[in-house]
Design goal:
Blueprint: E1 2-7, E2 10-15, H1 25-44, E3 50-55, E4 59-61, H2 66-70, H3 75-97, E5 103-107, E6 110-112, H4 114-120, E7 124-128, E8 133-135, H5 138-141, H6 147-156, H7 160-168, E9 173-174, H8 175-180, E10 186-188, H9 191-206, H10 212-222, H11 224-229, H12 244-247
Parallel strand pairs: 2-3, 3-5, 4-6, 5-7, 6-8, 7-10
Antiparallel strand pairs: 1-2, 8-9
Helix pairs in contact: 1-3
Length: 248
């Protein structure tokens, strides 16, 4: 489902297996557990860490587990199941926004819907250029965006034309176009190279030995609307983002 390893001062979370890495309750819980381990181990260590998320196979993540939601037997039951996934994924965004170290997504395959959101939760995004695309499928399948999805996209997609293409055209955006639109930072040849570069970038950032608490505080202060949307800061309290422990 997922694995966590430590390469020097870089924690590497990998979504394992050749499937679509659909974000169901079990995978979401496993990712949150891994992030909790990263937080605890970094707090006990000397400081100066970084975090990378990658995935095996042709998908980074194809979003929520819609097959599970739709197997509920009725439209209302399916919507209730999907709402439960929306609710339990929200703390992952909070976890990553408050993680006390630089974070990098190594997008090693297709990243759609919640998988796209998982990628742009990170401070930096590297993506393979030989295959894969970013895609918000909600318009095509007739689903509204959760408010915190919109807050995340507004925070991380600065160009309003790029945001329009993502949310109002349901565009499938390959790596080169995503870099041009400012959605991702780097494009690399294939999956292995993308992960290698992300880890190397993590090593360079970790070597700065920044104070993790200060780093997380500055990150949260940079994105107050998103922090409010995922429960890290109260309305009107932008200057004092709450910690995950206090809110979740």
């Amino acid at each position: 489902m997922c694995s966590l390893e430590k390469r020097g001062r870089v924690f590497v979370l990998t979504l394992t297996g050749d499937g679509e890495h659909r974000l169901g309750h079990d995978l979401i819980a496993a990712v949150r557990s891994a992030l909790a381990r990263v937080r605890a181990e970094s707090a006990a260590g000397p400081g100066g860490y970084a975090f990378v998320t990658a995935a095996e196979g042709r998908f980074f993540s194809n979003g929520f587990d819609l097959a599970w939601a739709n197997s509920a037997g009725s439209r209302s039951a399916a919507r209730e199941r999907l709402s439960s996934l929306v609710a339990v994924f929200r703390p992952i965004v909070a976890d990553l926004m408050s993680l006390p170290m630089p974070t990098i997504a190594a997008v090693t395959g297709h990243a759609a819907a919640a998988g796209f959101m998982l990628a742009i939760c990170h401070d930096y995004v590297a993506m393979r250029g030989d295959r894969g695309f970013l895609y918000m499928s909600e318009l095509d399948i007739g689903l509204p965006f959760p408010p915190y999805f919109m807050a995340l996209m507004r925070a991380k997609i600065a160009d309003p034309r790029a945001l329009r293409d993502v949310v109002l055209r349901a565009a499938k955006i390959p790596a080169a176009d995503a870099k041009e639109k400012g959605i991702i930072d780097r494009v690399h040849g294939g999956a292995a190279e993308t992960v290698e570069v992300a880890v190397r970038m993590g090593e360079e950032l970790a070597a700065r030995k920044w104070n993790g608490s200060i780093y997380a505080s500055i990150r949260m202060a940079a994105f107050p609307e998103l922090c409010r949307a995922v429960g890290l800061a109260e309305e009107g309290d932008e200057e004092k983002p709450k910690t995950v422990a206090a809110k979740l």
